Amino acid sequence: MEEYKLPGSSYNQLMKIICAYAATNGTGITLAELAKSADMKEVIISRNNSFLTQAKLLAETGNNSGNKSIKRVPTALCIKLGKAYVMDLKEKVIECWNEVVKGSPFLNKVISVVPVKNDILKKELVNNIIKLSVNSVSNNSRTGATAIIEILKITNFVKEQEGRISIVAQSVEQEEKEILSIESHVSVDADKNDIIEKENHTLEQNEYCVYTYSSNEKGKLAELSVSKSATEDDLLVISHMLNAILKSKKRKQ
Predict the structure, then answer these.
(1) What range defines the domain where residue 221 resides?
(2) Which of 75, 62, 4 has the alpha carbon at shortest distance from 33?
(3) Quick one: pLDDT at residue 34?
């Protein structure tokens, strides 16, 4: 499993870095230049750059022969987020982080491990995030996992109460809306005793592989077309969509 680079600082420090990048208005800047302008240590900025790049808040340009010479450019989303934070436009900040979360298979996977009907200890979720990210357990990774939880709290995917994390009802409702289009194509009404079988053959149509799932009693339940060029991250998104359907089915039982 590929490692996901967690933030290397607290949420507040991460936002300070984002704001410093946003202040360049899209101009490429080196690590040393940013550290000087933001009055921060290079090592603190450096351990957050990989996360910001994965979140599509940063892009690299210039000579990549050494870290000192790499120029990083804030994306339009980074500039929008940084300016919204500075101006205390909370709704805009939420909107920007929502875009980051929805575009990240990893962050969607983190949301999926939070129980729907129950809650989870915050420290347990921190450990789960570190495990999912394939990072080693350290103070930095714990801080990074906690920053991830803060992002999910800000975007109202989860809430915290007395050291426990739970799914926000609003996010559950939104999730149900997002899977309506899926449910129109995939039946989730199979009885518990139905035997779901995956056919042994895969039908190839142009650039897609078509997987058919069937029930002994109800026949074909679903047909899934997957592009041959799909990446692991793409498949994780599909997995999250199917998991959302399963959660919706359980809530209705």
Answers:
(1) 184-252
(2) 62
(3) 95
